[in-house]
Amino acid sequence: MKVALISYEVYPFAKVGGLADVVGALPKYLEKLATSPLVIMPKHKVVEVNAEKYSYKLEKVRESIEIPYLNTKEKFDIYYSKIPNTNVPIYFIENEYYFSSDDVYGGPDLAEQAIYFSAAVLETLKLIAPDVEIIHVNDWQTALIPVYLRTLYKDDPLYKKSSTVLTIHNLGYQGIFEPDYIKFSGLPESVLDINGIEFYGKINFLKGGILFADVINTVSPTYAQEIQTKEYGERLDGVLRLRSSDLYGILNGIDYEEYNPETDSRIYVNYSLREIEKKYENKQKLQEELGLPQGDLPVLGIITRLVDQKGLDILADVLRYILLMDVQFVLLGTGDKKYEEMFKKLEKEFPEKVSANITFDINLAQKIYAGSDMFLMPSRYEPCGLGQMYSLRYGTIPVVRYTGGLADTVKEYDEKTFKGNGFGFKEYSSAYLLKAIARAVDFYKNKKVHWRKLVENAMKTDLSWERSAKEYLKLYETAKNKKLQGR
Ligand SMILES: Nc1ncnc2c1ncn2[C@@H]1O[C@H](COP(=O)(O)OP(=O)(O)O[C@H]2O[C@H](CO)[C@@H](O)[C@H](O)[C@H]2O)[C@@H](O)[C@H]1O
């Protein structure tokens, strides 16, 4: 089966968040299942910058392609490379005007950029993969592709056999813009309708994908249910309920080759469950690197985009109480200024206990996953969450709010049965968060046998992509059947 995965970010070429990890890893595992995946992304500025660091070559394969129906004369080139350590081809859409910002999600006009990219993808597939069967789009930036296929490309013989899958990685980002963009897009005015991409007088790209894709999925079974409720639906719950029978939840995996404490060259000392003492060498080295006093007190790590989604407000409410418990707190993140300043202030106030690293640093991230004892994710909502999965893999115990993918991957430890791999709470409140952390700290300090068992359970949790890639394959079959039935 020939599958094209379309994404705005793909690891290691350009990464802002979890989306890059997913689209960087899934094709690798699809390839092992005897499908022929290919990937298309924009050639952001950082793609050139990362070429040397990750040893990949970029080769220009086509140039000066026009998109006749768009209201622009901009042309694009196509570059080619391979996803490192695989045979999976990746194509880059290059256009100086749209994709040369320093920031992957920056640039002259986000709506035009997403429209341009979506249209360029369809023109590119015609040239490089006319036999494509599944076009798998991700998030709002690529969600207009199914809309184009059902309108402007409806009678195109090359797309007669292709079905579409939309994966929603985060319903909080929908791509809502002024309706005038319809002119730029070349789409028929008829799609600007309540049964199309119209949304409270504006255009909503993600809504278009939800209504026009053959099947839709999100990145965990729990989130797939949650988004159909008013509380989590971000005003699209009604539209999602309309497509309920075509809406699936597939848990992300993590790349076991890339994220393996036994071989990861980014951490201080490699370790496995058999030599778990070496994990504590990582902790000591991390404390040393971050200028924290060394000692056997629990290190609480957090690595995140600093945005409201991640539950930082309830964490802020209780951080001072948490620090009273004789723990250290290590943060890595960038994002909203209010959070950046808050954590920096806390570091100034408690230099012996807090290390606030306001930067994006993939190597330091791995050192924190390996060197911490606990990992915090008190998210307001969490479609899947990768942080808790990486921490489990590195024997670092997650303390989470049981929502979305966090509820699907972290199970409360039960000292009677010795089962469970973490701690958590359900109600979104700082008091419950504090209680969950206190429970984790109590186990760490006073119940060493249980802690050892927790670490073991964490490291043995199955989070592999093999399992998830098989589910995606099934989803692709479902999409093909839907198309045949004439959805
Ligand atoms: N400052 C920093 N330095 C280095 N690395 C950093 C960093 N800040 C974040 N990261 C890394 O970015 C990734 C974050 O991934 P998550 O899945 O946890 O959240 P995100 O909200 O980005 O993803 C969205 O998409 C993914 C993929 O589907 C869903 O899992 C998730 O729930 C959804 O919100 C992790 O690999 C983390 O280590």
TrEMBL record:
Catalytic reaction list: [(1->4)-alpha-D-glucosyl](n) + ADP-alpha-D-glucose = [(1->4)-alpha-D-glucosyl](n+1) + ADP + H(+)
Pfam families in the record: Glyco_transf_5, Glycos_transf_1
Class of the enzyme per the UniProt entry, highest EC level: transferase
One MF annotation (Gene Ontology) recorded for this entry: alpha-1,4-glucan glucosyltransferase (ADP-glucose donor) activity
InterPro entries found in the cross-reference section: Glyco_trans_1, GS/SS, Starch_synth_cat_dom
Residues covered by the Glycosyl transferase family domain: 295-442
Keyword field: Glycogen biosynthesis, Glycosyltransferase, Transferase
Pathway assignment: Glycan biosynthesis; glycogen biosynthesis
Starch synthase catalytic domain location: 2-241
Binding-site residues, ADP-alpha-D-glucose: 15
Similarity comment text for this entry: Belongs to the glycosyltransferase 1 family. Bacterial/plant glycogen synthase subfamily.
Function as written in the Swiss-Prot or TrEMBL entry: Synthesizes alpha-1,4-glucan chains using ADP-glucose.
HAMAP family in alphabetical order: Glycogen_synth
Protein name from the UniProt record: Glycogen synthase
Gene source species: Thermosipho atlanticus DSM 15807
